[in-house]
Amino acid sequence: MANTIGWGSGAANNSIGWGQGKTNNAIGWGNVYSSSPSGETDLVGVIPPISLTSPVISGSGVVGQTLSTTDGTWSGTLPITYTYQWNRNGSEILGATFNTYTLVTADASTSIDCTVTATNAGGSLSKNSNAISVAAAGDADANAFITAAAITDTTQKAAIDTLVTDLKNYGIWTKMKAIYPFIGGTAAQHKFNLKNPLDTNAAFRLVFNGGWTHSSTGAKPNGTNAWANSFFNPSLHNVANSSHMSYYSRTLFADTITNACEMGCFTASGAQRNLIFASGNGTSYCVPNNNNEFIVSFASNGVGFYVASRTSATAIMGQRNSTQYTNTATTARINNIISLGAGSGPAAGLYSSYSPRESAFASIGDGLSATEAANYYTAVQNFQVSLSRQV
What we know:
Blueprint: E1 2-3, E2 13-14, E3 50-53, E4 57-58, E5 66-69, E6 73-75, E7 81-88, E8 91-92, E9 100-102, E10 111-120, E11 123-128, E12 132-133, H1 140-148, H2 154-169, E13 176-180, H3 187-190, E14 207-209, E15 212-215, E16 218-221, E17 227-232, H4 234-237, E18 243-249, E19 263-266, E20 273-276, E21 283-290, E22 294-296, E23 304-310, E24 315-320, E25 323-328, E26 338-340, E27 343-344, E28 351-352, E29 359-365, H5 370-386
Parallel strand pairs: 1-2
Antiparallel strand pairs: 3-6, 4-5, 5-9, 7-8, 7-10, 10-11, 10-12, 13-29, 14-17, 15-16, 17-26, 18-23, 18-29, 19-20, 19-26, 20-21, 21-22, 23-24, 24-25, 27-28
Helix pairs in contact: 1-2, 2-5
């Protein structure tokens, strides 16, 4: 039998090629089942999921950090449900089927993406997200700082990881209480203390005041009103007769600003000074907790890495790059806050000797021996070289 429009039970043939036992037509009529040209069930009025924008994953590509994915945007008949499958280098990660995923050691040095599948009554469709590259497995303390400071550049990540590893291998890490690597390029990144990267006063993170210029090479005060509060008080946070400060000066300036100070504090009378100078016409060290200036001259070049350290009641040491000088002095710890970019006085808001010199690194902590200070320079200089900003 044949008919002209293909409807009816058991039609063997018709003018548009539908066969016996089933009806197959554009609007899904028939008394056995309906089949669309694609072979999927084609229900009246149901539109399968259609991808409008791909899902996007975000988060830091560091082992231990958590990534999350959006669903993307879709059209189609509601309701639409979503399932997730995270992938490592294109292969499915067993059990990773939620919209968040915490990176594990196996993810180091790989590429991670997520497949989102949208499903409704009309069918299913999958779409892949962007991919995130995961850094090589690194030091946990370095990773904590990288996350807090939102460091995304792989060279900068590697530089921080190597710096922390070097300081630990030299036995210096435990002597540090505040490390400011000035990496990333913004005030929001430069403020963090590598040793304790929390955004709190108690963690000695910096608060910048006045005019500063922040860039990938460091933090540069304007020499007129710029200073940064470290919230570090030697009398409260250093033990007696053990302290150091360091400052990496990148700017060669003729010392036109009288006693321009890179970092430190002083007492009301000025008799006790806890300062570092890196002037262009010679360098004056005022070593931590020392009431006698410790002065050394370096021709007319004030750039370099400066360390001022006390390791006993009488032993103090100053260092520029690999050159060291020693002296003796005694005094009590200064009860004031160490600032960067200027010397802080005894009263709130009293600052002087503003510096115009860019810093690429600074630190505060326990006293360093001559050997430790030498190793410290090696580690810090390697850090600067890896970032192509060494002097």
